[in-house]
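Input sequence (122 aa), recorded before submission:
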Amino acid sequence: MATAAYGGMTGSITVAALVTEIKNFELKRTVKAGDATSMASAGFVERVPLMKGGECSFESLQAPGVVGAQGTITAMTKATGGATYQAACVITKITDTTEVRGVVTFKCEAKLSGTITVTGTG
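Predicted structure, token format:
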């Protein structure tokens, strides 16, 4: 399990058997809205929710596999309590970065796949 060393947040991503601790993360949940406007809409545009999805970006000290790898992301807003987000994902981008005399970090992006489970509250 990941540590809570960074601002009280904790998280990990698992690809195959490799568990990578997340240094920081941003998780976006989205829904596509379809047009449901009809003659009965009285001149107003009406929308209905269609497909839910999401994407995330995160930074870690270890590469989470390779681009195209499938895994599971678990991200928590607090080490104890708070909200926990969990979803299957596909790694879509990995960027290796380092500062002079610094530690190599991996900035990654992933598309979420299937249900996004949210437990607790932020």
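Checked by second reader. The CA atoms of residues 10 and 108 lie 16 Å apart.
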